[in-house]
C-alpha cells in the first residue's frame, strides 16, 4: 500500500508518519509537506534512511504539483493533516487558512477523484479534523459525532468547510472517506506558539506566561501519541463514510493547567515550590475565544476499542522532559520569524 500523508513534518503529522513507517514496513509512506514555519524535518531526521519513507516537498494549494505526484506514484490512500492550525494566526491573517485548509483540501479531493476514477475499491481519503468545528460548549455537555457544526473562528470555519467538502465528495462522487475530529493535542514536536509548549519555553526562560482573559476557558487535552494511535485504528478498522470523535476525557481550565505545569517545571528545574507560578500573567483575551471544548469519544472507544494510554500527569511530565532534553530544537524554532510573531501577538520579545 502506498500512503500519502500530508503535513507530516508538523506536530501531529510527524508522530503519524513515524508510527506508520515503523509499524508497517510493508507500506510505502510518502510525507508531503510545504515546510511552512510549522513544518520541521528535524522531527523525522532519523527516518530518512528508512526504505519505506519518502519526503515530498510541496504545497497542497498547487494542483499542478498534486497532479504530478499522483501520476508518478499510484497512491492507495491519503491521510490528510496539512493545515494552518493556529487560531491566533487565523485571527491576524485568515486568508492563508482559507487557501490551505479549504482550497488545499479540495485540490487533494480532486486529485484522488481523478486518479481513483473507476477503481475506488481499496482506496481511502482520511481527513484529520478538529473538535473546534462543533463550536463552544457551556458548563455541561459533550461534542458527539452528531453535534451540529457551529465554527466561530476563521480557523475552525476553514476546518468545518474542509469537513463538508470531504463529505460532499463521498456523497456525490462516491469517494471512500473517513474523518476524525480530535480535541487539543500536546506532546513532543509541538510548535511553541500553542499554549503548553509556549508556557514551557517561557517558564524555562523566566519570561511572563501569558494567560488569556481570566484563564477559565476549558480544553480537553490528549497526548499526541494517543491521537496517532487513534488515527491508526480508524484508518484500518473504521467504517467507510464514518466520523469518529477523539478526546482525552481530560478537561482542564487553562489557569489550572498552567499552575500544574509551573509546579512540574519547578520540580524539574530545581526551583523553589511556587517560584514559576509568579510568571503567570493575565493578558488581553483572544477575540471570540471559545469557552469550552469537551469530546465524547465513546463511539471510538466502543466500536474500535481505542482508549488513551497515557494519563495527563504522565503525558505532561514526558512532554516537559522532552522539551528540556531538546533545547536545540526549541532554540531553532524560536529564532527568526518566531520572534516577530511573538512581538506582534504579545507586544514584547
Ligand atoms: P501543525 O501546524 O503543527 O502542522 C501542519 C503541517 O502542515 C506543517 O508541517 C506545515 O508545514 C504543513 N502545511 C501547512 N500548509 C501546507 C500546504 N499548503 N501544503 C503542504 N503542507 C502544508 O499542525 P498540527 O497541530 O500538527 O495539526 C495537524 C492537523 O490536525 C491539522 O489539520 C489540524 O487542524 C488537526 N488537529 C490539530 C489538533 C491540535 O491540537 N494540534 C487537534 C485536532 C486536529
Ligand atoms: O481543539 C483542537 C484545537 O486545539 C486544534 O484544532 C488547533 O489546531 C490547536 O491549535 C488547538 O486550538 P486552541 O486554540 O485550543 O489551542 P491553543 O494552544 O492556541 O490555546 C489553548 C487555550 O489556551 C485556549 O483557550 C487559548 C489559551 N491560550 C493560548 C495561548 C497561545 C492562552 O491563554 N495563552 C496563550 O498564550
Compose a concise summary of this entry.
It is built from twelve helices and twelve strands. By secondary structure, the chain is α/β, with parallel strands linked by helices.
Averaged pLDDT: 97
Order of helices and strands: EHEEHEHHEHEEHEEHEEHEHHHH
Main beta sheet, described? 7 strands, parallel
CATH top level of the domain at 2-183 and 223-249 and 294-309 and 336-346? Alpha Beta
- The first-to-last residue Cα distance is 47 Å
Coarse shape? globular
Q: Assign the CATH architecture of the domain at 2-183 and 223-249 and 294-309 and 336-346.
A: 3-Layer(aba) Sandwich
Oligomeric organization of the protein chains: single chain
- Work out the helix count: 12
The CATH superfamily name of the domain at 2-183 and 223-249 and 294-309 and 336-346 is: NAD(P)-binding Rossmann-like Domain
Small molecules bound: nicotinamide-adenine-dinucleotide, 2'deoxy-thymidine-5'-diphospho-alpha-D-glucose
Stated plainly, the CATH topology of the domain at 2-183 and 223-249 and 294-309 and 336-346 is called Rossmann fold
Rg over CA atoms, rounded to whole Å, is 20 Å
Q: Which structural class do you get from the secondary structure elements?
A: alpha/beta
Strand order of the largest sheet: 3-2-1-4-5-6-10
Amino acid at each position: 500500500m502506498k500512503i500519502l500523508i500530508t503535513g507530516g513534518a508538523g506536530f501531529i503529522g510527524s508522530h503519524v508518519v513515524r508510527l506508520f513507517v515503523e509499524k508497517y514496513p510493508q507500506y510505502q509512506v510518502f510525507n508531503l509537506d510545504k515546510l511552512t514555519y510549522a513544518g520541521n524535518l528535524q522531527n523525522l531526521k532519523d527516518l530518512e534512511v528508512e526504505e519505506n519513507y519518502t519526503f515530498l516537498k510541496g504545497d497542497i494549494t498547487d494542483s499542478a504539483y498534486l497532479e504530478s505526484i499522483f501520476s508518478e506514484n499510484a497512491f492507495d490512500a491519503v491521510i490528510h493533516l496539512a493545515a494552518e492550525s493556529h487560531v491566533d494566526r487565523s485571527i491576524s491573517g485568515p486568508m492563508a487558512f482559507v487557501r490551505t485548509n479549504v482550497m488545499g483540501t479540495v485540490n487533494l479531493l480532486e486529485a484522488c477523484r481523478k486518479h481513483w476514477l473507476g477503481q475506488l475499491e481499496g482506496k481511502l481519503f482520511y481527513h484529520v479534523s478538529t473538535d473546534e468545528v462543533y463550536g463552544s460548549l457551556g458548563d455541561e455537555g459533550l461534542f458527539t459525532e452528531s453535534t451540529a457544526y457551529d465554527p466561530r473562528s476563521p480557523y475552525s470555519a476553514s476546518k468545518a468547510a474542509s469537513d463538508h467538502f470531504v463529505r460532499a465528495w463521498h456523497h456525490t462522487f462516491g469517494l471512500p472517506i473517513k474523518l476524525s475530529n480530535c480535541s487539543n493535542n500536546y506532546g513532543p514536536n509541538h510548535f511553541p506558539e500553542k499554549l503548553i509548549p509556549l508556557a514551557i519555553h517561557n517558564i524555562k526562560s523566566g519570561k511572563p506566561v501569558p494567560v488569556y482573559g481570566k484563564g477559565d476557558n476549558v480544553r480537553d487535552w490528549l497526548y499526541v501519541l494517543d491521537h496517532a494511535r487513534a488515527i491508526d485504528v480508524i484508518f484500518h478498522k473504521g467504517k467507510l463514510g464514518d466520523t469518529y470523535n477523539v478526546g482525552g476525557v481530560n478537561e482542564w481550565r487553562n489557569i489550572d493547567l498552567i499552575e500544574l505545569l509551573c509546579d512540574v517545571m519547578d520540580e524539574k528545574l530545581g526551583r523553589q515550590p511556587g517560584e514559576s507560578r509568579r510568571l503567570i500573567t493575565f493578558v488581553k483575551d483572544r477575540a471570540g475565544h471559545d469557552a469550552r471544548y469537551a469530546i465524547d469519544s465513546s463511539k471510538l472507544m466502543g466500536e474500535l476499542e481505542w482508549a488513551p494510554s497515557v494519563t495527563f500527569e504522565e503525558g505532561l511530565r514526558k512532554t516537559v522532559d522532552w522539551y528540556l532534553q531538546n533545547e536545540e530544537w526549541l532554540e531553532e524554532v524560536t529564532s527568526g520569524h518566531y520572534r516577530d510573531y511573538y512581538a506582534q501577538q504579545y507586544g514584547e520579545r
